[in-house]
Amino acid sequence: MNVLVTGGASGLGAAVAERVAKDGHRPLVIDRHPPKPEGGGWQHCLADLADRHAAERAVHCLARGAGGLDAVVTAAGTDACGRLCDVHAEDWERVVQVNLLGTAAVVRAALPYLKAAHNGRIVTVASTLGLRALSDATAYSASKFGVVGFTRALAAELAGRVAVTMLVPGGMDTAFFDGRDEQYKPGPDAQLNRPEDVAATVMFALSQPPGCEVRELLVCPSREPSWP
């Protein structure tokens, strides 16, 4: 199984790519940075998902090089914390470009390959903040609420042809929080999921038999502060 993973050089994306490889499949990674565990069947293409044309080229390059796609996992994501009036417009818009428009661009480019595959699958990555909004997160919530709507509509559109799953993860112990102001970082007592555990749920969705779909997965720490 050829599995395209965006954001596969770090965080959840890297955990998904590693799990794909561990289970005997081939990860195809799109990221702005090369994945660390190169070799062993891994393929990657450098691209910024804020650039639609670059994202599309990366999908086609990897799909053609691998002889097709069986699944896509859109794990790439970014954030710009702060009140709307305090976040630079360019930074705010980049969050939406990467998280929402980048997701749509990758899925759109991948669809011909997924339709040609037997049991083609898509897993998008939303967030608990795509279901419950918080202050100082207008860009991230807007992008992830968009992913929720996009994915639900896509599942209806592709029913019977390509399986669609929406993953809704809570807080994870990744570098996603690095570089933020202290007020926007998890506290010392924060309980965060391991990305490896969340990746296992992605693989569960990808491993369902033809005709069976896991439509939505909410995976969070048992004491998730952003949900419910």
Automatic annotation (TrEMBL):
Q: Where are the transmembrane segments?
A: none
Stored Gene3D superfamilies: NAD(P)-binding Rossmann-like Domain
Question: Mind telling me which Pfam families this protein's record contains?
Answer: adh_short
Q: Which InterPro entries match?
A: NAD(P)-bd_dom_sf, Sc_DH/Rdtase_CS, SDR_fam
Record-linked CDD domains = SDR_c
Give the similarity note: Belongs to the short-chain dehydrogenases/reductases (SDR) family.
Record's protein name: SDR family oxidoreductase
Source organism: Actinomadura miaoliensis
Q: What is the lineage of its organism?
A: Bacteria, Bacillati, Actinomycetota, Actinomycetes, Streptosporangiales
